[in-house]
Design goal:
Distance between the termini: 40 Å
Strand content: 15-25%
Helix content: 25-40%
CATH architecture of the largest domain: 3-Layer(aba) Sandwich
Number of domains: 2
CATH superfamily of the largest domain: Acetylglutamate kinase-like
Radius of gyration: 23 Å
Strand order of the largest sheet: 3-2-1-4-6-7-5
Structural class: alpha/beta
Number of strands: 14
Number of helices: 15
Order of helices and strands: HHEHHEHEHEEHHHEHEEHHEEEHEHEHE
CATH topology of the largest domain: Carbamate kinase
Shape: elongated
């Protein structure tokens, strides 16, 4: 996914007071540049993802300019978190002067269940946010953009180790050139065990909601203590998430479509990788013969690509199948990412005579093979 400019910007009213007056009058602000024109809006998984924040503290931090430009969106997202039992704190650095009194009163009035904390504009905003509490479960920084790599591609999730490796190139990797010091402070906070998760999000409509309640996410996640689990699909909600992940790959042309009915009826054949209890990858078990099993429908959420989730999924699947007596594994794909993954794990591209019938059902698709003695 290529880096975008500010996503979901409201046309800025002539003054913030004008925005507040229109809001108080019950008239919504007009949106001229909303989310990209994509008919497939992200699906919210309120039950599965809601458990991760219920009863937990979530800190939302934004600088003055972002708060002013995205006031209505920020309010709406924080209210959404409160409705799902998160304990929210909004931190901002808007100066404490008479001209800001109306906005300050609006924040308190619109967010009665949230703590509103003013950070001195004279100090380091990011350091002040990260030291606001000794321990912080989740911190969300609303910025102009998410983190990007040297080619301008979105960084979905990253560990502090990888983030530190990028610090020397921070001018190219991070949209906000002032974020280099902030990234170092974030790494220190997480590595000390004082914070579980830090999210860097592009301020805009639904950005927090879609970051925390969808498979795709909207920004960049920095964390170390991801808890990985590999198992069979358990619930209808997990079937729905698997379908969503597969649909992403289906649109790229690398996977044959699998209907909701097919997934439900064959859920016993689907295995998933879950991180922190949330499904982020899947693979389908397809028995070929007494020794061979095919890995079908191997897919990883875009959120966790390049985080070795694919390696974990394939290795865990093969280990479970070996425990059941299978020693040969095949997979058919033309997906360059999977081809590289299989090469890394010791597969060979080879269409063996023993699997001629299977190959015939997918003409023109490469077959990868691995055997254990």
């Amino acid at each position: 996914m290529k880096r975008n400019a500010d996503i979901g910007l409201f046309t800025k009213p002539s003054t913030i007071e004008d925005a507040l007056n229109r809001s108080v009058a019950g008239l919504p602000l007009q949106l001229l540049n909303d989310w990209p024109t994509d008919t497939s809006m992200p699906k919210l998984y309120l039950k599965e993802y809601g458990r991760a924040i219920a009863g937990r503290e979530v800190f939302i931090a934004c600088r003055e300019g972002i708060l002013r430009d995205h006031f209505q969106d920020i309010i709406a997202d924080i209210k959404f978190l409160v409705r799902h039992d998160a304990r929210t704190t909004l931190l901002h650095n808007m100066p404490n002067r008479f001209a800001n009194r109306k906005l300050d009163e609006a924040l308190k009035g619109r967010l009665p269940a949230s703590d509103i904390v003013r950070i001195s504009p004279a100090g380091d905003f990011y350091e002040a946010v990260l030291t606001h509490r000794q321990t912080m479960f989740k911190v969300i920084f609303l910025e102009r953009n998410y983190l990007v790599d040297g080619a301008g591609n979105k960084i979905n999730a990253i560990t502090t180790g990888r983030a530190r490796q990028s610090l020397t190139d921070a001018g190219e990797l991070i949209a906000n050139v002032n974020f280099m010091g902030a990234l170092a402070a974030i790494c220190r906070k997480i590595e000390s065990g004082a914070c579980d998760r830090v999210h860097i999000l592009p301020a805009g409509k639904h950005t927090i909601k879609h970051e925390l309640f969808t498979v795709e996410g909207t920004g960049s996640l920095i964390a170390n203590n991801f808890q990985e689990e590999f198992r069979q699909v358990r619930t209808d909600e997990e079937v729905a998430i698997v379908r969503r992940i597969l649909d992403m790959y289906k649109r790229s042309g690398y996977l044959k479509p699998r209907s909701k009915t097919y997934l439900s009826e064959n859920r016993h054949r689907f295995f998933v990788t879950a991180i922190d209890g949330i499904v982020v990858g899947c693979v389908e078990q397809k028995i070929i013969d007494a020794q061979t099993v095919e890995m079908g429908a191997l897919a990883i959420s875009t959120r966790f690509r390049n985080q070795r989730v694919g390696v974990h999924t394939v290795k865990s699947f093969m280990a479970q199948m070996q425990a059941q007596g299978y020693t040969r594994f095949i997979s058919l794909t033309n997906n360059p990412r999977l081809e590289a993954l299989y090469d890394q794990l010791g597969f060979v591209q080879e269409s063996r005579p023993a699997y001629r019938e299977r190959q015939a059902r997918s003409p023109g698709v490469k077959m990868f093979f691995k055997q254990f003695d």
